Amino acid sequence: MDRRHFLASLAATSATVAAPWAQAQNWPEQLIRWVVPYPAGGGTDVLARTVAEAMRQTLGQQIVVDNRPGASTNIGAQIVATAKPDGYTIMSADNAVLAYNEHLFSKLPFSPEKDFTYVGGISRFPMALVVHPSFEAKNMKEFLAYVRANPGKVNYASPGNGSPHHLAMEMFKNRTKTFLTHIPYRGAAPAMADVMGGQVPCMFLDLASGLPVIQSGKVRALAIGTAKRVATLPDVPTLAEVGVPDTEVYAFQGILGPAGLPAAVTQRLNADLNKALSNPAVVKRMQDFGMEALPGTPEQFRAMARAESKRWGAIIKAAGVKLD
């Protein structure tokens, strides 16, 4: 190859390599789609819209929330896994996408480890074991004694098979060597309604939806599944405090993009996400829902999600829970 052709080839190669970087530096140049794999109006949707508005202020582009519920979040996750990795399609990802479904389903249309770019954490939703106020067990010691004296006769509600609430109780049962009977519902609202009504005596309830009913006394919280007590329920002990160690149960959320997202775009999204998590409107909304913010790097979010997958995979296997 002569010098003229060599220089032309080198210039073309440099332009090809530089083009994605230049595009990343100019990003965002159009609206961003934020996929939420749940229906509109729920805690995940409300949080996504709150954070999206705060990020819009710093990104300078509109962020449109696109609700794509179904198949235990797999529909929304597949949309993002197969999207063009240009930064214009991201999603809310929670326990289901990142920690549960690869163990609950024999085959997934995507890999949580290989088909996404991890952007950063958003929040953690503490979960509490609650009972109807009329239930005779007034604390965890009495609850465990009652359940052990009546194996299989105490029912518990959940929003459905494989939900964080269901698996939280499976972990509780595993750690305490107890047997309660699962009553799955089609969503958190009807499950919570039947516990408040006394039709089912207990359930694990996330504070995103359950904080008001706990504070109002419509259900009684026996323990919270976090390492430390939460500020919104300072009188509720942790599971560890009441003799149930190694049982941290919570729902977590973060942002994913498709695999191959340019590093500059990932870094920009992460920076603006972390700024949003300190925005007063976002802080207040999280406090109202009893949530804990999860700022940090993409690497920290990925490490947490993979550790959660390993932890919950062991519980799912031990309980024999499958969704197909």
TrEMBL record:
One Pfam family hit: TctC
Domain of life: Bacteria
Protein name per its UniProtKB record: Tripartite tricarboxylate transporter substrate binding protein
Recorded family membership: Belongs to the UPF0065 (bug) family.
Signal peptide start and end residues: none
SUPFAM superfamilies, A to Z: Periplasmic binding protein-like II
Species for this entry: Paenacidovorax monticola
